[in-house]
Amino acid sequence: MAEILPIKAWRYHEKFSRQMEDLTAPLFDVVSASQREALYANPLNSIHLSVPLGDDPAGAAKITLADWKTKSIITQDQLPGIYVYYQYFRLPGEEKEICRKGFIAQIKAYDWDENVVLRHENTIAKSVNDRVALLKETRFQSSATHGLYEDESHLLESYMDKAIEDPIYDLEDYQGVREVLAVIQDAAIIKRFVRLLKEKQIILADGHHRYEGAIAYRKDMMSQSVSYKGDEAYNFHMMYFTNALDRNLRILPTHRLLLNFDIKESDLLEKLGAYFTIKKLNDVEEIEELILHKQWAFGLMIGDQAYKIRLIPELIDMMPKGLPEVIRDLDLMVLHYFLIDKVLGIPLEAQRFSDQIEYERNLRRCLNKVSAGNASFAVITRDIAMQQVLEVCKSGYTMPQKSTYFYPKTLSGLLFASVDEEEFKFPYEMFQ
Prior knowledge:
By secondary structure, the protein is α+β, with helices and mostly antiparallel strands. The protein has helices spanning 20-23, 33-40, 47-50, 57-70, 125-138, 157-163, 187-197, 208-224, 265-272, 287-291, 325-328, 331-343, 348-351, 363-371, 386-395, 421-424; strands at residues 4-5, 10-12, 74-76, 82-89, 98-108, 117-118, 140-141, 145-149, 169-172, 178-184, 202-206, 236-243, 250-252, 255-258, 276-281, 297-302, 305-311, 357-360, 377-380, 405-407, 417-418.
């Protein structure tokens, strides 16, 4: 099913190898304002390609890219490779170090209806448009999206373990995660990766906006082609692949901040009472513990008060008709339908365009924004199980936007992939 190829990667010149912690950056959708300020201060940081500044950000990235190529700040590997990418991390409260194992390659940017790459959540339209503009101007990808494949036998792990013994980079990132990158350029081993993935569907875990941008770019280029063959550079997209059946995959919750609602606490609670049971909490720190393992339960922060709210169970049958059970019963679907649609009046179909919904992973930042009056109130959610993600993808439906936060996030700037035809071309048939 999935056609993948090794990458003729662009990377920072080897003279910068010891500076990679200063040259890499968080993904564009998780860069905080303070992080951006520090990163932009370094004229060679990869953020200038991934989240460019100015009135014409995509044009600025194009100029920067040309300058970096001319000055050999970044150079292209002459041989394509499968880039093994391991991330070592600890979650708060856990002593054991975890390693998420994966590899970076390029995959054909399949449209959703081709049923090869499956999505699990909706996107935010403006973010997709930004990614399309950047790709059209630069023909360059500064970060990999994250895809999942299912392999019970873990057939590729031994090759990855061997490669990671001789890393290109070994550094600590902004999350405190140890990031290790290595490369496999042995054609016989690369064939094993290509052939295994050819039998798989890919579940898009992270990077829906960038992937949709790649689809749009491919369609645009195909429409202009007079002799489309299918192996042109614009068909392909850089992706980080991990095994969905790996026990070290972690999904963290993403909370909702609701902005610019002129509503009193008492009025909000009255409206919520039509759908939810409400329990006032003595301590905001209780929120995460009280909603853990409880279906359709959420935390609510408004003013200096905290509440636990939980859907009245018999109301679940009010959900839109025709939804499969796996979608209907999702916590986040309940949240977006009953609270954001019914209580706040933002219809489901309009929510991905709304500027009144903001997404935040950190509980403390949610509290601070509400306390400072930068958000009207916050809704605290719990994590979603990997099995639910797989079931949603295979159902053909999608979850609300920002439903999952696969941790740790991948890092931008470790390597780059070009979809410029001259830089892309290689006899890739040798890997089939």
